[in-house]
Amino acid sequence: QSALTQPASVSGSPGQSITISCTGTSSDIQTYNHVSWYQQHPGKAPKVIIYDARKRPSGISNRFSGSKSGNTASLTISRLQAEDEADYYCCSYAGSGTWVFGGGTKVTVL
Amino acid sequence: QLQLQESGPGLVKPSETLSLTCTVSGGSISSSSYYWGWIRQRLGKRLEWIGYIYYSGSTYYNPSLKSRLTMSLDTSKNQFSLRVRSVTAADTAVYYCARSDLYEYYFDYWGQGALVTVSS
Known about the structure:
The structure holds two protein chains of two kinds. Chain A is 0% helix and 44% strand.
């Protein structure tokens, strides 16, 4: 069970859009739609912002959107705001009741 | 509002057993609708799924940790627990307990996290 691959960092200016990729394998992302994304601010617990690859939980801004193609999932943050500066993690169901996370991406708002 | 709170020793000696408890308030761990899990975050930041337990006692463990793990439930106290045997410095991390919906496949409620350091 290998970790999903994410870029270490992504940056953008306020108002811009950024996209974070999350690459897995045929054992996880390619097979299952159960990909979730978590936002984590320093010293805080992660918070889910996307589940089932593209669904948003109640209360999550529509500036966050998700997609999936093949073995790669993506998170797009539109109209970037200062409060979006955080670490972002993808997570995929990997079958047999197991889960795997990505290495995390630090988003910097310039 | 559901709340989860981790508790346990913050310092464990190498080769000993790490034990953590998660106390759940505002909901019952006896519900058939949820899994109750553990996730850790080493200081290098990557999250790592450890495993989870269902109200029936069924467990699902990370294959890489499975040989050292035990999870259990105490429904009378509305708590669930994690034990990791034979710890090394590599087990030093912030440990989170979290809830996962049976059908929604994501972790919707998390504890605040508990730092456990493995050191002599």
